[in-house]
From TrEMBL:
<dbReference type="InterPro" id="IPR038726">
    <property type="entry name" value="PDDEXK_AddAB-type"/>
</dbReference>
<keyword id="KW-0547">Nucleotide-binding</keyword>
<dbReference type="GO" id="GO:0016787">
    <property type="term" value="F:hydrolase activity"/>
</dbReference>
<dbReference type="GO" id="GO:0003677">
    <property type="term" value="F:DNA binding"/>
</dbReference>
<keyword id="KW-0227">DNA damage</keyword>
<feature type="domain" description="PD-(D/E)XK endonuclease-like">
    <location>
        <begin position="11"/>
        <end position="308"/>
    </location>
</feature>
<dbReference type="GO" id="GO:0005524">
    <property type="term" value="F:ATP binding"/>
</dbReference>
<keyword id="KW-0238">DNA-binding</keyword>
<keyword id="KW-0378">Hydrolase</keyword>
<keyword id="KW-0234">DNA repair</keyword>
<protein>
    <submittedName>
        <fullName>PD-(D/E)XK nuclease superfamily protein</fullName>
    </submittedName>
</protein>
<dbReference type="GO" id="GO:0004386">
    <property type="term" value="F:helicase activity"/>
</dbReference>
<dbReference type="GO" id="GO:0006281">
    <property type="term" value="P:DNA repair"/>
</dbReference>
<keyword id="KW-0067">ATP-binding</keyword>
<dbReference type="Pfam" id="PF12705">
    <property type="entry name" value="PDDEXK_1"/>
</dbReference>
<dbReference type="InterPro" id="IPR011604">
    <property type="entry name" value="PDDEXK-like_dom_sf"/>
</dbReference>
<keyword id="KW-0347">Helicase</keyword>
Length: 311
């Protein structure tokens, strides 16, 4: 049975680490003060508000989620039926979801307030009341590009040509591991074992541009596959598929990279522990002790700026 706890369970993920690095106050809102905000009663309205803001979706995030969802569905359907979707179908489905998000955001504000995990609310509309026309035009073009590149990608070509030889890894919701007794969540897009090449293959679809963080993220995925399937790094192939440009980038990792990612994990956990008032219950320190970032450019796209502006 679902148990209501006063504080969240402590866990680690790369996105949690990145949030803390960008702004401790944001980290506090995301990982502590939104806790239980999904409940309809027996919870302070403040936590409901923080939770609602946490659920706001800026266009790049929303777009990425929708594209990832349809890519996952396309691959699963293909593996079951042998029939790939057409470009028109993928565009149609994704546009339908983006339209649904727009309709929720503009016409169902009250429903979203009541049930923020059941309705969409686009961050741009919440804060400015509209979606800039050039942003809409930009994403209209991106939808076509990303699905065109997905269908033509070497990864999807391999899936369609070697379907019988691939063993697909477990679904995303089950991907976690323990490091030093801490639950670590690994939000990996797609991985499989190719019997023809005797390799584990990890693929991360990117709907935005290339970033310096991409390598670190993939190193964590490689560590996960190495630990979970007990295979050497030489047996793991890792790729970024950049769907806007159609570029595919291959990464090679060494033991040194694995040590680096473990070092990041350990250092990051120590930093996170500074915000625990009680290390056993994971009760947080006071909100004021989660410092606001001094790099104010982080605030421009932040879901919680309404709260910080009130201070
Ligand atoms: S608005 Fe700025 S200071 Fe406030 S939580 Fe967001 S990033 Fe941090």
């Amino acid at each position: 049975m679902f148990e209501i706890t006063p504080y969240p369970t402590f866990s680690w993920s790369l996105s949690r680490h990145k949030t803390l690095t960008s702004c401790a106050r944001k980290y506090g809102y995301e990982y502590y003060f939104s806790h239980n905000g999904w409940l309809s009663y027996n919870v302070e309205p403040y936590h409901q508000l923080v939770y609602r803001l946490k659920k706001l979706q800026p266009m790049p995030i929303l777009f990425g989620q929708i594209v990832h969802r349809f890519i996952e569905q396309a691959i699963n359907d293909y593996l079951q039926t042998g029939k790939p979707p057409t470009l028109e179908e993928l565009i149609h489905w994704a546009r339908g979801q983006l339209n649904a998000a727009f309709i929720d955001s503009t016409r169902h504000l009250e429903s979203w307030r009541q049930k923020p995990n059941k309705y969409y609310m686009m961050q741009e509309i919440y804060y400015t009341g509209k979606l800039p026309t050039d942003l809409v035009q930009d994403y209209k073009e991106r939808i076509k590009l990303v699905f065109e590149h997905f269908l033509r990608s070497e990864t999807f070509q391999q899936i369609t040509s070697q379907r019988g030889s691939l063993r697909i890894g477990e679904p995303e919701q089950f991907r976690s591991m323990k490091i030093n007794d801490i639950q670590v969540f690994v939000v990996m897009d797609f991985h499989y074992f190719n019997e023809l090449t005797d390799k584990w293959v990890i693929v991360d679809w990117k709907t935005g541009g290339e970033s310096d963080d991409d390598r670190q993220q993939l190193a964590l995925y490689a560590y996960y596959v190495q630990q979970k399937y007990r295979v050497p790094l030489e047996q793991i192939e890792v790729y970024n598929e950049y769907l806007l440009t159609g570029k595919r980038k291959k990464y090679s990792f060494t033991d040194f990279d694995m040590e680096n990612i473990l070092h990041t994990f350990q250092y990051s956990v120590l930093e996170m522990k500074k915000y625990q008032a009680d290390i056993f219950s994971n009760e947080p320190v006071d909100l004021e002790d989660f410092e606001q970032t001094q790099e104010k450019w982080h605030c421009r796209g932040c879901n919680f700026r309404e709260l910080c502006a009130q201070k």
